[in-house]
Amino acid sequence: MIRFENVGLRYGSGPEILRDVNFHVLPGSFHFLTGPSGAGKTTLLRLLFMSIRPTRGLIFVFGENALEITAAGRAELRRRIGIVFQDFRLLDHLTTWENVALPLRVMGKAEADYRDDVTDLLRWVGLGDRVDAYPEVLSGGEKQRAAIARAVIGRPELLLADEPTGNVDPVIADRLLRLFVELNRLGTSVIIATHDYALMDRLDAPRLVLHEGHLEVR
Amino acid sequence: MNPPRFIAGIRDYPWRSLLAGLLPARFQAKTAQIVPSASIAGNALTVVIAIMSFLACLTAGAVYMVNQSAQAWVNGIASEITVELDPVNTADIEKKMTLVSLFLAKQAGITRVKPLTAEDSAKLLEPWLGKSDALSALPIPRLIAVEIDRSNPPDIKTISEALTQNFEGVTLDDHRRWQAEIRTLTRSAALGGLAVLALVAAATIAVIVSATRSAMASNREIIEVLHYVGANERFISREFERHFLGLGVRAGLVGAVAAAITFLLLPVVTHALGGGSLTATEMSRLVGSGELDLPGYLLCVLVVFVVASLCTLTSRFGVIRVLKSYA
Q1: A93 chain-B contacts, CB cut-off 8 A
Q2: Distances (CA, A) of B76 to A175, B98, B274, B284
Q3: Given an 8 Å threshold on Cβ–Cβ distance, is B232 in contact with A72?
Q4: Which of A7, A38, A36 is nearest to A21 (CA)?
Q5: How do the pLDDT tens digits run along chain B, 327 residues long?
Q6: Could you tell me if B81 and B100 are in contact, meaning their C-beta atoms sit under 8 angstroms apart?
Q7: C-alpha–C-alpha distance, residues A127 and A131, integer Å
Q8: What is the Rg, in whole angstroms, of the alpha carbon atoms belonging to chain B?
Q9: Chain B: nearest CA to A134, how far in angstroms?
Q10: Nearest CA of chain B to the CA of A102: how many Å?
Q11: I need a surface site. Which of A105, B209, B227, B261 has the fewest CB within 10 A?
Q12: Do B228 and A51 lie within an 8 Å CB cutoff?
């Protein structure tokens, strides 16, 4: 599904943030991506999502060389990937419901076909009473849950989440983790970037550990 | 072009979403606005496009009126020929007028022969020489207006040769030179109009390109999120172009209605500004009745379509170009 071969990345003429990164993500797998702050977790997720290009090495996403892919091809691949950003990236002029429904609108689906699905998912992540609220009135945890709901609504083949439980209480964190596990059981590969060891200890899943630019699988 | 793909593109195009963009922001469904209307363009842009549309309608209408008037002139003078009698060295000009008129009346294809009196000929010179008794002392050529049957036209060349052989100092003018000059004038007016329309179109494109770039800069975050959820360039450009289509239609209509009112009021305004009967006559020579007929107003409707299309297509290509520069 995803293959990194000797991937290196540096910004400008600065030091290499990632060095000789090699790993495979198989269909239906579940990984935690961890490491100290500033280790490059977010950068690695951005490479996986094709929003930046590596300085060297090869990245294959769903069998396609990420360096040779066209803009249209990248858009198609991104529809198969759900991503949760650390800063949520919700659109302030859209309601919670509209934000979550956005990937389905982009896919060209009719609203009648997904209206109930979006509402059900929002209820499941504990936002059933916030469907018409705008992001500016949501708390950090509520925004995070809305961002997660947006990432998973399209049943992606790969889910990338950057610190998805960083702003929520343990009860909600546990519920979100169960959502990720449930998605994984349904066939979605999941990569969760986190330094929350308590969260990682709740699940027996391989850990991709970033340290000084190198990646190690534990 | 791949025809099935083209047809599928038209069939699958989100027309409903595009048409929703025609409505002013307050009447649009909130779910229809991934890119908010307020972030696209302010009233200033609408005013600029409305002015462009107004100028385009005025130009198109004026060229159309000049063309219609010139066509009427050509039709009029093509139905007539003029026979001119040299008054010098002619002892009895009235007798010669009668003989020539009788000769012309006998020719096939001629429906009416009207000899003009000396007073009629003098009146034709009044706009240049004014009213004066001295005119009667001048050797003014005498004229015979001859109407021809356009469905069964006479052999002008033969008649002209016969007149020259039988009557000294008599010439025939078939108005071809005038027709050629009127056609030249019409073509010049049309070319001038096209040049003005081209300038208006270029200015409109430049304004829309600038507005598109500005709209994309202020909506950069939205564009990024759309990219992240898998939106392709066409989806993003459609979100912008439907706003510009709405803007183009609204501004185009305002400009066209303003131009239509101007055309309706043109005769009244010309009169109110102090134009006497002479000005009115000159105006009517230039632009006919000075009022647009139905095809003329349809031309204004066409301008609305063109302005709206220009706004839509320019924004589409502008957005796609900027998106490519992001990649």
Answers
A1: 33, 36
A2: 90, 25, 29, 14
A3: yes
A4: A7
A5: 566 766 766 666 666 655 655 655 555 554 558 888 877 777 889 999 999 999 999 999 988 888 888 877 777 777 888 888 887 766 778 888 888 899 888 888 888 889 888 888 877 777 777 777 776 777 788 889 888 887 888 888 888 888 888 888 888 888 777 778 878 888 888 899 899 999 999 999 999 999 999 999 999 999 999 999 999 998 999 989 888 998 999 999 999 999 999 988 887 777 776 655 555 556 666 656 667 888 889 999 999 999 999 999 999 999 998 888 766
A6: no
A7: 7
A8: 31
A9: 12
A10: 7
A11: B261
A12: yes
Residues from B contacting A (CB-CB < 8 Å) are 12, 14, 30-31, 33-34, 36, 221-222, 224-233, 235, 323-324, 327
| Closest CA of chain B from A72, distance in Å | 6
Q: Determine how many CB atoms are found less than 10 A away from the CB of residue B29.
A: 9
Using CA coordinates, name the residue in chain A closest to B39.
Answer: A93
The Cα–Cα gap between B40 and B212 comes to 8
- B226 to chain A, closest Cα gap in Å: 8
Mean pLDDT to the nearest integer, A170-198: 87
Sheet holding B110-115, edge to edge: B110-115, B142-148, B80-85, B170-173
Q: Which domains does chain A have, with CATH numbers?
A: 2-217 (3.40.50.300)
Both tokens of A89, joined, read 């990236």
